[in-house]
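User: My collaborator and I are trying to settle a disagreement about how two of our proteins should look. Neither of us wants to argue from intuition anymore, so we agreed to look at predicted structures for both before our next call. Could you fold the first one, then the second, and keep them clearly separated?

Assistant: That sounds like a sensible way to settle it. I'll keep them separate. The first protein:
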Amino acid sequence: MKTSIPPQPSAADSDSLLSVLSVLVVEDNDLDFLQVSKNLRHGRKRISLSHATSLGAALQELEIRDFDVILTDLCLPDSSGLDTVKRLKAKCDAIPILVLTGLDDEAVEREILHAGAQDFLPKGLANSSWTRKAIEHAVQRQQSINEMSRVTAELQASHRLLREQAELREQDHQKLERMHQTAHEFLAKASHDIRNPLTVIKEHVSIVREGLAGRINLEQAAMLEKALIRADDVNNKLDDLLDSSKLDSGLLDICRRPCHVDEIIDSVRASIEQRAAMRNVKLEIQSQVEAPVAYCDGQKACRVLVCLAVNAINACNDAGNVRIWVRYDEPNQHIRIGVNDDGIGIQPRQCDQLAARFARPGVTTDPDDKLLGLGLSIAARFCRLNLGQLHVESEPGLGSIFWFSLPVVGSDQIFPRWLELQSAPMQYVQLLSFHLNEQCTPAEKRDSELLLTYLTENHELLIQASDSQWWLATSSIFPDVDARLKKATDEIARLTEVRAANPAFDIGIQTRGIWSLKRPIDEIDAAYQQLLQDEPSQATR
């Protein structure tokens, strides 16, 4: 049975009715229902009452319309006790339930709340004000609960979406890593497969050029010489491809050590002179350079110099001029190695593009020179790895000047330039010191230096402070002070076992400082320089 009592608005609400609360009263006792309706008759908010005399009737009402609150007795014709609350809660979890009870038992009241009811109203004590406030508060609490449930559901959905997106990104990342590794392996294998027949071709061309397979004339010798040079070009292009792949993947080895500039120039002199002679270009190479010892990877510096020299030669017409020179820039504590040419020059807007991958802004006059355009890009990156920079000055029709810098041994610029290379995901810089026993022989010191050079990884910096002390700067993701220290100690111990017939390495290792890369570079460098002055004081984080 259902009874509906129309609301009776007060005089204060006659002009504007704020809202209407729809209440379902589940009560089989008509007197109790009339008492509830009497208590709810007056108030600022209008209340629309619906009456059900059994649980079944209440469930039917909930099927056909929505209610703001449910007031129910525990004892009904078709249900009794807490089962009434549980079944109503299961039917409409988002509607607050208030229990009308004649019991005054705290244990029963706790069970009512535990079953899912929001509150309870003692039948004999309830009055108009109390009943209304209980209903309004129950509705407000349920609205808050519903809003929290909605927000929680949205957050859970967002969390699932983010987790799915993270999983997709991880899958894409793994796929890209596999593709990158496959490409790197392909380049390495292709390079190996191409070099083998190329070596055979060069050997046979050399045999013919030298006249060992029969006499040849000068024109034939010149053609064979050009074939040999072009074979070397192919080798250089293969090196460029492999180095570009290694640079992108962080696998390129870098070994910075004291290096004489004369040795760098002498090691590339023959190949550059051969190329200049083929193009009929006059080549001048500055020799007997009076400059301090450079701190660099000598092999990388040679690659840069060959790249700049070959580009300069290719930029010249016949009877052009190319000059290789060296200068010591004492104020900046670095050595400049440059290449001048009087070739076609470069447009100003193109100078900034020279270090871009595959860029070819007209630096050659040779129509047969089909370069990949990787040379200058790799040269610029090699210069950065050598803690220097590549520079260009040019004007169309007047030639170009290319030069790169190398820091000198003991320069104050070495450490801050290395710091500039550090990037995400690295977060910290750690400094270790290696001390040798002062009683070590020169041979033992030399072996120790080779050992420390071997221990230095690509992203690290090894600086010799004295004959018996070295500094190792390393970057890491976490501020784990002991990880690199333990790794170096274990590696030294392992290599000592290999040197069974030689004395053990007598090297002391100590952590000297660790800094966050979020700090400015000049602050980290100042702390490092202070360490050098205050040896052996400890650095602070």
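The second protein, kept apart from the first:
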Amino acid sequence: MTHERLSNATALGVLSPDAISSSAYGTEQILVELLPYAGLAAFTVVLPVTAVILVILVLVTASYRQVVMAYTRAGGSYVVARENFGPRVAQVAAAALLIDYVVTVAVQTSAGTAAVISAIPALGPYHLDITVGIVVLLCYANLRGLREAGRPFAVPTYLFAALMVAMIVTGLVEAVTVGLPAYDAAHLPGAVPVHQESGLVAGATVMVLLRAFANGGSSLTGVEAISNTVSAFRSPRGANARKVLVIMAAILGFLVAGVSLLAYFTHATPYESGYPSVVSQEARAVFGHGAFGQAMFALIQTATALILYTGANTSFNGFPFLASFVAADRFLPRQLTKRGHRLVFSNGIIVLTVLAVVLLLFSGGTVTALVPFYAIGVFTGFAVAGYGMSRHHLRLRERAWRTKLTINLAAGLLSTVVVGIFAIAKFTEGAWLVVVVFPVLVFVLIRLNREYRAEAAVLERLTAEGANPTRYAHHQVFVLVSTIDLAVVEALRYGHSLRPDKLTALHFVIDAQAAERLRSRWEELGMNTALRLIDVPDRRIARAAYTFVREATENTPRTGVTVLLPRRSYAPLLGRLLHDRTADRIARVVSRAPHAAATIVPYDVQSQIRTMMPDLPEERVTAAIERLLDRISSSGEDGAETAADRIPADPLSTPIRELRPGTSVVVDGRLREVAISEEPVDSGGPVLTAQLADATATVVLEFCRPHPDLEPGQLLRVTGEVHESGSEHKMIMRDPGYRVLDSANPDQDDQPDEEDETS
């Protein structure tokens, strides 16, 4: 993982597409609201609306500059809220960011498809299909890993920024010198309706302006992305993230202002279908219809589509990181903390993909329909980060804390106002769904945490006596039997291996004839284990098993009971349909009895079927699917050296295979295992042993005192004398000196970076 860090250049390309690409549709969404009410005056009103949005951009960027310096782990506003207001309040930020990430994927891919169709109108009927396909493709690319997905995704950012800057500069020069052609917005077939009267007075009411401003707020989405993935940067993380954040905000501000200015000069008009886009019309107006103009138009549309598609990749980086932190705090399922073999949070990526596809299908996949879902989550995250950093400065009162407090508090208050504007102005257009989902999601997160805390309270309730397992004077094992088959034989064999004082087979009778056949068959086979038949008149086997076990422990003091339940494992799908899960149900009930443990003994029936009858069609299909999944999961791993196996070569170090007793050496290796000795410290024996390995062999390290800084996975440089164990002929180094070269946990917190004097 230490090798999966991003340089500043790559980070700008990978983490900025969401923010920078929003300049492709932000101005268009402002005009969608203004034109039906303000008429052609909308092209004048769009400029002050854009100016207000840029002021907010400056404040938010200044606020997040402090976030990335103070909190250098991934998580952004969630971590800020958790550290300053506690984990419960932090769930407001978590809900906001999780919603924002899902909507970002849907909006960015929808806008990207609109850019494609603006260049190739024949693809219009397949808009939704293309968008969903792109989301699935992004999911696959990110499941392949950050490094594989990162570098290609950085290219569209630079290409789009360069082409847009060229278009804006060229367009403004032409507007000042020779003038730019203007579209007849009121008479374009398929365009949004344009108010025909004196629009600025009659149509541009306060509510219309607020709705336009709310739509334009979508231009600021993605600004928080860098703070959410600070841990992906190289050290010093905070300083590098701050540089990239400022560059990204400068590019975004220039592009948003430039697109709005060109819209003012060209009267580029949004269409109800979403295409041709405003940016595509501006490209036509600036570069014309000649050969050069056609080439530039094609390049700009290609770059726009690419960055909008890859802008969704920001969510595929941020959502899994954030979900893992929330899950680590026990507010989301633990499965979201697991990394796949490509070092990415695979479960988080898959969950994001499913939610984004559902949202696209629900909304129809158009940007205008999706924008109402958008900015509430975005600006709620901004507000929480601003308030959290304000609390941070009040607590620490570091250098220039009053100035920083003013910036953060202003960003938080202004973002809160925007959330209110959006919730009111866009409520009937879809914002109601977010207003409803938001508190529900916060409630679910807190409820999950309550469940996890209740489980932990039970499992972690240790006393001095409970921390040491009780040694029972007697041990009885009962094997539950419903019939005689190989699964039962395996369970009996396992029961004998436990060396109990008594092993008994139990059959709970619910069918007298079946019980008699079982008893006869048991005697016929000469089974050397006692069989007891217990009548269950109410047919409640789990309750009968619990009662029997409880009586067994109560009648014989200091007796531990183990109940073995044979379970036959079948094909995943057909097994669920054709067989019940009685063993699981009984085990759950029996485990509640004091001094009793229930153990399920599985027997894989499906593998035996596959061995004995491999020609069955369903078995061939199942085996082929399993081989394909194995090939996918192990792709790129066979025979390849992983980053964890690579140990930097050093001329002073000796390969472990060449160690000889009685020599003093320097050895570089990675800790594969660390064990705490059972012997007490005053016994004279080692209290800690470790296995140190390189590519050649393994050496044992023995320490006579605790070393809490040693962890499996660390890369160590060890210095000391080599000894040989008498009978095993293993190489041992006793109480060597050592230095940690590489941490076992590269994802741990960095210390906050100190700001320089000019910051």
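Some points you might bring to the call about the second protein. Residues 291-328 form the longest helix (38 residues). The CA atoms of residues 358 and 531 lie 55 Å apart.
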